[in-house]
Each structure stands twice: as structure tokens, then as C-alpha cells.
Design goal:
mainly alpha
């Protein structure tokens, strides 16, 4: 999750993403708050991408930056 947050920060969505999480309920919020790794194919990622109107290349960029961060 930490790497994904770096990717969001680099993309300029970190603050908006944290606000987004605060308004979620149930399993979606649990996923974002407890997942050690974010999987691109997860339904919560798809919902988040739709919410922010992110394209597949946008997600490529976010996950590329996230993948370049060492744990």
C-alpha cells in the first residue's frame, strides 16, 4: 500500500484519494485501510479509477511509480 500511495502522490491524487477513502463504507474502506499491497485488478481499484476518471495509461503510470519504490 505504501508504494501505491507514492504512485498517487507522484500523480497528484494523494490528498483526493485520502478524502475518497474517508467516504467509503464496508469492505471497500477495509480494503484500502488494511491491504498491504494494492492489486490493479481488484474491484476497489476499478471503482477508484472510475471515481477519479482515470484511464488505463493513468493507472499504468501510478503502478509504474509504485513498482519503482523499494520496500
Amino acid at each position: 500500500m505504501a508504494q501505491f500511495l507514492y504512485g498517487l502522490r507522484d500523480f497528484g491524487l494523494r490528498v483526493q484519494f485520502e478524502n475518497y477513502i474517508q467516504h467509503l463504507d464496508g469492505h471497500a474502506r477495509d480494503y484500502w485501510l488494511t491491504s498491504p499491497y494494492v492489486h490493479r485488478g481488484h474491484v476497489c481499484v476499478k471503482h477508484m479509477a472510475e471515481f477519479f476518471q482515470l484511464t488505463s495509461p493513468d493507472l499504468d503510470t501510478i503502478f509504474s511509480v509504485a513498482g519503482s519504490i523499494e520496500e
